[in-house]
Amino acid sequence: MNTFQIIFTPTSAAELARMPKELQLQILGEFRSLPERSCRLLSA
Prior knowledge:
It is built from three helices and no strands.
């Protein structure tokens, strides 16, 4: 499995911090499936 890294800028981290906690968790949870999706797209 390839390593997948997401880097937040100070600005984007501050924007995320201003959101309700549930929304933060939902957004961050979406990143979990990104490596799987990118691998499927590359192999298609």
